[in-house]
């Protein structure tokens, strides 16, 4: 049974889309008139849009970014630090998205997570297997290795500032989704892994969300599963009717 005190969590990942001048209008269209008190809702926008999105926070929607640098500050031309994003009002940063893992070094994931936590924000940490691992039945060895390497030195207090997004790479932007049962199975394994690693009941409160071609047509079934605590939504978070229907599965 889903815990009563664990708020479902839905994050929009706009990726590199839209214009700063249109960002607030889209955010309002995605959320206005919906009852969102019972869920935590975050819009993760490109860096350039974040300042323009600040007014949406008055409605209870949080804003977040899609990555940050692994250093606190310094001579890193073109980069953005976690503390800069906190200063803009961000409360969440996505770290380890598969579209970033192909650009950033694997060893930089943990330092990035540290920067987010040090800046007082929370992390939406992404993990998930490529198609080859799915086809050879090696999903869990692959994902558990990611968890072990990336989250190795986090404490129980750090865990309280973490949302884990399971995003199988083969499902991202492809229209393919894992079945509700397959996804539930993976989420439960992730939760059990967290419970064993930190030896804490808090693992039951950890939000484990699913991402990968979530849309209005599949969200209702996925949201029924005990260990699917919400969604990380890419393409459908740019389409108001789709995103609103996804939110309504939990609200
Ligand atoms: P998608 O993207 O919903 O477009 O598959 C999800 C994500 O990349 O977070």
Task: Give structural attributes.
251 residues; alpha/beta; binds 2-phosphoglycolic acid
Structural overview:
By secondary structure, the chain is an alpha/beta fold. The chain is built from 11 helices and 8 strands. The chain has an 8-stranded parallel barrel, surrounded by 4 helices. Helix 9 links the parallel strand 6 and strand 7. It is globular and about 45 Å long. The structure holds 2-phosphoglycolic acid (PGA).
Give a short summary of the structure.
An 8-stranded parallel β-barrel has the order 1-2-3-4-5-6-7-8, surrounded by 4 helices. Helix content is 37%, strand content 15%.
Helix and strand composition category:
alpha/beta
Number of helices: 11
Main sheet characteristics: 8 strands, parallel, barrel
> What is the helix content?
25-40%
List the helices and strands and how they pair.
Blueprint: E1 9-13, H1 20-31, E2 40-44, H2 50-53, E3 62-65, H3 82-87, E4 92-95, H4 98-101, H5 109-118, E5 122-127, H6 131-135, H7 139-151, H8 156-159, E6 162-166, H9 180-198, E7 207-211, H10 216-223, E8 230-233, H11 240-248
Parallel strand pairs: 1-2, 1-8, 2-3, 3-4, 4-5, 5-6, 6-7, 7-8
This protein binds 2-phosphoglycolic acid.
């Amino acid at each position: 049974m889903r815990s009563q005190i664990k708020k479902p969590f839905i994050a929009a990942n706009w990726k590199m889309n839209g214009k700063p001048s249109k960002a607030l209008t889209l955010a309002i269209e995605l959320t206005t008139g919906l009852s969102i008190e019972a869920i935590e809702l975050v819009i993760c926008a490109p860096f350039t849009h974040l300042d323009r999105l600040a007014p949406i926070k008055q409605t209870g929607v949080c804003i977040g970014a899609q990555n940050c640098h692994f250093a606190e500050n310094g001579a890193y031309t073109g980069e953005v630090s976690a503390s800069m994003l906190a200063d803009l009002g961000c409360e969440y940063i996505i770290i380890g998205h598969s579209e970033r893992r192909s650009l950033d070094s694997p060893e930089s994931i943990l330092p990035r997570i540290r920067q987010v936590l040090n800046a007082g924000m929370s992390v939406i940490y992404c993990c998930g297997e490529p198609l080859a691992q799915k086809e050879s039945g090696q999903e869990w060895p692959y994902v558990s290795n990611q968890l072990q390497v990336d989250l190795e030195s986090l404490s129980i207090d750090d865990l309280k500032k973490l949302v884990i997004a399971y995003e199988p790479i083969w499902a991202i932007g492809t229209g393919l989704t894992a079945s509700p049962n397959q996804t539930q199975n993976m989420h439960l394994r992730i939760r059990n892994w967290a419970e064993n690693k930190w030896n804490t009941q808090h693992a039951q409160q950890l939000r484990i969300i699913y991402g990968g071609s979530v849309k209005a047509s599949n969200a209702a079934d996925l949201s029924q599963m005990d260990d699917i605590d919400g969604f990380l939504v890419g393409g459908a978070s740019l389409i108001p009717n789709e995103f609103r229907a996804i939110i309504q599965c939990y609200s």
